[in-house]
Amino acid sequence: MDNNFQIKTFEEYQQAYQQSVDNPEAFWESIADTFTWRKKWDKTLEWNFEEPSIKWFQGGKLNITENCLDRHLKTRGNKLAIIWEPNDPKERYIRFTYKEVYERVCQFANVLKKNGVQKGDRVCIYMPMIPELAFAVLACARIGAVHSVIFAGFSASAMADRINDAGAKMILTSDGLNRGSKQIPVKRVVDEALEHCPSVEKVIVVERLGWAVNMVEGRDVWYHDEVKDVSKECPAEEMDAEDMLFILYTSGSTGKPKGVVHTCGGYMVSAQYTFSNVFQYQESDIYWCTADVGWVTGHTYLLYGPLLSGATTLMFEGVPTYPDMGRFWQVVDKFGVTIFYTAPTAIRALMAGDIDDVLSYSLDSLKVLGSVGEPINEEAWHWYHTHVGKERCPLVDTWWQTETGGIMISTLAGVTPMKPAHATLPLPGIQPILVNSDGSEITENEVEGHLCIKFPWPGMIRTTYGDHERARLSYFSTYKNLYFTGDGAKRDKDGLYRIIGRVDDVINVSGHRFGTAEIEEAINHNEHVIESAVVGYPHDVKGQGIYAFVICKDIPEREDWLRAEIIETVVEKIGKIAKPDKIQIVSGLPKTRSGKIMRRILRKIAEGDTSNLGDTSTLLDPDVVDEIKEGAL
Ligand code: PRX
Which ranges of the sequence are coiled-coil (predicted)? Predict the structure, then answer.
């Protein structure tokens, strides 16, 4: 049995947890032992959080795709690995067995090799949610190329930044994509990005819409031409446990997005262990994670975790609201989905619809529900639990981050306690603590503090690509010898965690992370803008909305025209997902005498709570606060 580490009872959880704290190395060794290694590791763990330097399973040799695919061929060769459901329900779905996925991945890997990709090269993937995206990711892993998936909603400019930071040699993309009722010319966005990306030598284009696209001679090739005569076998490259598996860009509180680096061995062990335990995965399950592969949830819980477990994973091209608000539930019934994992923002969007959009589907197949990406408010939790889960499905609220690689704090479905809006207890192997602002650990319960992790786990971030110092500064320098998550959390009287949200300048919009500085930088690119300050504010559907205070050079007659202009600039620089929800044109910003913007005040105004703005006497120009208050949107 390749998941004999699955915990079945609360007592087993307690024992496993205790063991993982008493002897973390022995704990993770016993899990790592269940995988296929070309060569076992020499040293389980070597670490320090000062540099930081984290090495798991050193000397171990493996290829993650041998664990995702090859090792299942004997027993699960004909089992469904991927079910692909298109955007349009009238288009036919496609199913792939493990054998078929194996062959497709090998073919794709051979196409990459044929086009010059070698072990260690970075390959950027900018593709819609089509099966080839899954094959492309695994194909990179198969030949030891480092994949960097860029969510296909990012703009050309955001894509170019990521490509250049990674020094990517190749881009994998498609002609276009479907998103609800819209079709988007993906290749055109790639072409625009590549005007600024000298490292890229080749572009491989997968046909999705059958559109005629511009193909640059000597650079661009069609996947369907390249795949014609390649073999369905491709030997897996032997990787060191600490070799890079992928880079995934995410936003921090300062500067441009950073490339979070994950490595082969530890990530693999974490991905399967957490998938199997949190969802209590069983062999016959039909599992559906609605995340896009462009985000970490899609990496770990749409692809790697389920495939490592030999599960059937559903990949959905569309959106929850197209062609109607019942689309998710229709898909659940259509394939008999048993485990369903989505984001609170989707739940809140669907809650706003007609209840019959849910009630008209049976949803009988469902056994476990999951939530990820942002705090789930109690109302959404209850709606999801009652109307989707019919009060019989455990609902796991899973807290984790791009940097953690896998789930850190969550209920284990039906095994450990659940509580609305609480991520609850840490998984075995994870040692969270709450600290005060001076870094001292808070040991009692019924408290609130900054959430840190005090011991390494295999799936954790190793570095930020090309800039190790940035990783140290972002995660390991705030509190000595601790990994700092950037989140604030509460611990209730029973020791259950509730994540409150970011305590840094990161905002979480519909489960997507943005640095306020990153959005400000985009806004400031607009020719009319002198300066801006961005804060998050509570938003009914998105969790947090983006509120921008902007100082402009010249204010035209029509402010709405100016606002539209500014939005356009953000869309161009980052993408539609980062569009400000509110833009208030102001004549000044509340700044201290040393020139620092007092965001605390702006946050309060954006939240509509101006009763107590605290001490404003240290401001350079206290009057500006009244003006901003009066003009608040
Ligand atoms: O603030 C936390 C929030 O999302 C952040 C991580 O974002 P990202 O790296 O994009 O990964 C999202 C998917 C794992 C965290 O710092 N977050 C994530 N899950 C939860 C959450 N906040 C509350 N509850 C959660 N379950």
Answer: none
